[in-house]
Amino acid sequence: MSQSNSLIVDPFCFRQFIDHDSSKKYSGTVFSVPISEFEDVVNARYDESLLKDGYAPFCKHLFIANDFTDAQVNVLSITPENESLLRSRYEARNEKELPVLSRYFPEDLMSTNAPLSVAKYLDLILYSREQINKENAAMGKDALEETAPWGIVSIKAQDIDYEIPMTPITAMRNALGKEEGGSGIPLDRDSYMKAYKYWDNHAVVTK
Hints:
The protein is of the alpha+beta class and 207 residues long. The protein has 5 helices and 9 strands, in the order βαβββββαβαβααβ. It has helices spanning 35-44, 107-113, 129-138, 168-176, 189-199, and strands spanning 7-9, 52-53, 59-65, 75-77, 87-91, 100-106, 121-128, 150-158, 202-206. The strands form 2 sheets. The chain has a 5-stranded mixed sheet with strand order 1-8-7-3-2. Strands 4-9-6-5 form a 4-stranded mixed sheet. The longest helix is centred in the C-terminal third of the chain and has 11 residues, at 189-199. It is globular, with a radius of gyration of 17 Å. It starts with 6 loop residues before the first strand and ends with a strand.
């Protein structure tokens, strides 16, 4: 339990760290730095005034310089040269979520075409302690004895210091409710269309 830190890596995000077994099956960005060291760095740089609003009142973003990890960018523009490399599959982020269809660039294919660069920034996606507790209860998970006000639920490695729109399918999953692994936030058409316009021409790079 963290009594002094403002930020802790939530168990949902453990899959993004190589020192946890869940990272072996995770297809997104995985950090080689230990969680404890990562938390030390981000808490040293935490400033409440730097928090940016997320898609709901309980969600915030904190953008920090990526000068302490080797995480690479994992979102690329779709071009005539690389669109033939796109793949699709159904996936769920954990065993209690409904699998949804996603498309992606396979990391092994992309690395042979053009090396991915180390990201300039990390987008720390934060959920309030209250929201984390609500979602855990809805999915039948044990309550955490944690008091840090913010949990890091996801980390995006990117070259811009502002939010990349969440994928449209993530917005849909959130609208399904906490019982299906979402947050329970209703779909907002304007936000959805903004996300569609971005992801219509971009895709993630995954394992």
